[in-house]
């Protein structure tokens, strides 16, 4: 007997509309519960930790130097001149917090800007490991190697020409050039050895570092490009003359303080001035920029400011090139009484060409020394501006450095504070000093200067009693 399926009546999915709505709500509730559970599980899963950024650092030990410009830049030279690391600023001792002066040998940890960089973005663990004696600046013969740099074109920048060898030799060795200028200003105590002086043209590939005036990149590239047979160790000082056409440096010259390297940038006309050469060289020996009215480089009576003349009296003294006619203090300068001194112009010779005053009568307020000197045109001062010629210049210098007894590489902030005409009086109220000048004599070569320290005011100053 065959079986057969009987048709069944179709049953509705939900028995009633009300039941359908209930089932739908149950399904939605289940969905949201599952969704919340999934979200909770996902949010509780720990986020994979990111690796901290790589910090590149190197431990350094070397000689600290400053390149005086605006602003100054600081560097540590490692392995002589083969490597130099640029610092973010003047370093301070990590324990005491005291600023460390140039010329010291230091150890520190340098945080590098990148794996191949020589620029420190920060330094830690800074300490002094040695303080060598300053380099003598008197009775010195200079063996100078000048590298005149030419740039080859690269994908980064175009070719640029160099100053010619003949132009550089004329700048240094020509009549009234740098060598004569230095000899006159130093009274023969610092001279260029003309038999060893050499100019070498070097050609280096153009790079962004050179075009941005990175001094260490310029120096390193120039030394690598030296022709065989030129050994930098055979010279006492190295000078790099930048290619013609680089105008982005912001300086006409740059010198290590202390050190033996300097950089010169020709003007738009292709010129380098002898006073720029002198200023950078003297920075190698520890002289800092000269001040006037609170402006660095503002003293145009000296090559260490913006002048084309010899160093000022305090600078001549610091270099050991000239000596004072007298050093005055409370013991040697009687109160309320004039003391007289015959001065001759500084260009005439090294002995007795200034008066140095150490105003110890000020007590705790004694922080600066005073220098008086007659300046006139002649010798290395042949280009002295008229506002200083045949007049007495007054300078001040920080006593903690200026009175140390040895040449220090710290900055005494040498500042021009006065210029006195002949037959005039000049009061220095901050020092309780009255300065009186007499006639200028012998066509600007000699002058009589009277100095008095007063207690209450300059009117109390009188002439000394005649000797019996």
TrEMBL record:
Domain Peptidase M11 gametolysin: 154-422
Superkingdom, natural source: Eukaryota
Pfam hit, one: Peptidase_M11
Xref: InterPro entries: Peptidase_M11 (IPR008752)
UniProt signal peptide: 1-40
Keywords linked to the UniProt accession: Signal
Protein's name in the database: Peptidase M11 gametolysin domain-containing protein
Organism for this UniProt entry: Volvox carteri f. nagariensis
Organism ancestry: Eukaryota, Viridiplantae, Chlorophyta, core chlorophytes, Chlorophyceae
């Amino acid at each position: 007997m065959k079986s057969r399926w009987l048709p069944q009546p179709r049953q509705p999915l939900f028995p009633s509309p009300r039941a359908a709505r209930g089932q739908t709500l149950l399904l939605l509730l289940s969905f949201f519960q599952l969704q919340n559970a999934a979200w909770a599980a996902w949010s509780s899963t720990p986020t994979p930790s990111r690796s901290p950024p790589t910090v590149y650092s190197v431990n350094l030990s070397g000689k600290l130097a400053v390149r005086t410009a605006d602003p100054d830049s600081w560097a540590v030279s490692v392995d002589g001149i083969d490597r130099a690391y640029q610092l973010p600023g003047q370093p301070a001792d990590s324990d005491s917090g005291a600023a460390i002066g140039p010329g010291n040998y230091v150890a520190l940890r340098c945080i590098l800007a990148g794996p191949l960089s020589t620029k420190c973005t920060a330094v830690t663990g800074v300490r002094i490991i040695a303080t060598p004696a300053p380099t003598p600046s008197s009775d010195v013969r200079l063996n100078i190697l000048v590298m005149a740099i030419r740039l080859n074109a690269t994908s980064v920048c175009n070719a640029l020409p160099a100053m010619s060898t003949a132009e550089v030799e004329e700048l240094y060795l020509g009549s009234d050039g740098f060598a004569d200028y230095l000899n006159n200003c130093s009274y023969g105590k610092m001279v260029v050895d003309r038999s060893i002086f050499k100019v070498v043209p070097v050609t280096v590939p153009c790079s962004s570092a050179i075009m941005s005036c990175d001094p260490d990149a310029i120096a390193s590239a120039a030394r690598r490009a030296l022709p065989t047979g030129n050994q930098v160790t055979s010279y006492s000082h190295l000078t790099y003359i930048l290619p013609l056409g680089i105008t982005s440096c912001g300086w006409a010259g740059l010198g290590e303080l202390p050190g033996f390297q300097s950089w010169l940038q020709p003007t738009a006309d292709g010129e380098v001035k002898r006073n720029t050469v002198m200023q950078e060289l003297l920075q190698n020996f520890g002289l800092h920029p000269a001040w006037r009215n609170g402006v660095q480089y503002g003293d145009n009576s000296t090559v260490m400011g913006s002048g084309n003349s010899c160093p000022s009296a305090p600078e001549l003294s610091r270099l050991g090139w000239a000596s004072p006619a007298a050093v005055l203090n409370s013991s040697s300068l009687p109160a309320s009484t004039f003391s007289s001194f015959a001065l001759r112009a500084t260009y005439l010779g090294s002995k007795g060409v200034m008066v140095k005053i150490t105003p110890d009568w000020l007590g705790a307020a004694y922080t600066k020394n005073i220098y008086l000197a007659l300046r006139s045109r002649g010798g290395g001062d042949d280009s002295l501006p008229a506002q200083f010629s045949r007049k007495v210049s007054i300078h001040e210098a920080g006593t903690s450095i200026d009175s140390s007894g040895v040449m220090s590489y710290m900055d005494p902030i040498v500042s021009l504070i006065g210029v006195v005409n002949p037959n005039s009086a000049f009061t220095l109220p901050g020092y309780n000093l009255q300065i009186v000048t007499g006639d200028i004599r012998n066509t600007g070569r000699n002058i009589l200067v009277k100095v008095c320290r007063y207690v209450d005011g300059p009117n109390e100053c009188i002439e000394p009693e005649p000797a019996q």
